[in-house]
Amino acid sequence: MNVDEMLRLYDQGQRDFSQIDLCKEDLIQANLTQINLSRADLNWTNLSGSDFSGANLARSNLTHSRIISAKLIGTDLSYADLSYADLNWANLNGGNLSRVNLSYSNLNKASLANADFSYANLTNCNLTGANFAGANFTKADLSGANLSGVNLTGADFTRADLSEANLQGCDLTEANFKRADLTASQLRNADLSEAILQGANLEKANLRGANFTGAILRNTNINQVKLSELNLKLPTKNRIIFWGANLRETNLEKAILKNCIFSHALLQKVNLEESCLHRCNMIEVILIGADLKGVNLRNSALNGVNLTGTTMADGSIHP
């Protein structure tokens, strides 16, 4: 069946075209809402400008396809293969992209608000300028993806793989990164205010200039991260919670960390030289071998702290 015949049947009311082969065909600016193209072969097909809102494209082959400025609102793309596809300016708001393969695809300026990307593969995907507000990325693979400047407010990245991803300048307010892997990710100047980073791995991440106002970093691994350049100057009501976080060997020199909660955190060999820790909760913190020269701990709670081998504020070494 060719494109002309399919369009004729669609105009007559037929909607089921599952498993159709339209490889390398042109289907530009067509109105195909509610069409069933599940398991269809659309490899190298040009679907630009077409309306597939409410369509079923589950398990379809869309590798290398052109879907520029297409409308796929509420479309089912679960298990589809969109690797190397061009979705520039496409609208996939509310779409089902669970377990979809979007590796090496282009989603520049695409709108994907409230879309479901759970278990999806977005490795090395270009997502610059896209809108993912409220999207679900639970257990998705975004390793190496380019998300710079993306709107990800309220997005759910629970257990997602964001290792080496570029999130520079992203709006991540109220996003959920619980147990996410952000190893070696680029978060420079990102807005993480009120974000949940409980159990996240931020080892070797670039957090320079990131805003963590009111963020929760309970049990977070921030090993080898330089926090002295972060935006952490907070009013009393917006505490940062580092409860149980792994900050071993982190550079916190001259950091402003007023009112933070570090209870049960690991700060072994951390550099806190000349940092401001006013009114911090540091109960049961491990500071073995840490550097506290010139640190300001005024009104901080220090019960049960392990200071073995720590350089104290006056330069002396704690036994």
Structure description:
This protein is mostly loops and 319 residues long. 3% of the residues lie in helices and 0% in strands. The protein contains one helix and no strands. The chain has one helix at residues 3-11. The longest helix is centred in the first third of the chain and has 9 residues, at 3-11. The N and C termini lie far apart (82 Å).
Report helical residue fraction. Answer: under 10%
- Which sequence of SSEs, written as H and E, runs from N to C? H
Unreliable stretches covering 5 or more consecutive residues? 233-237
Radius of gyration, whole Å: 24 Å
Task: Report, as a whole number of angstroms, the end-to-end distance.
Answer: 82 Å
Mean residue pLDDT: 89
Task: Report the structural category.
Answer: little secondary structure
Specify the biggest β-sheet. none
Key attributes of the depicted protein:
1 helix, 319 residues, little secondary structure, single chain
Kindly summarize this structure in a few lines.
This protein is low in regular secondary structure and about 325 residues long.
Which secondary structure elements does this structure contain, and how are they paired or packed?
Blueprint: H1 3-11
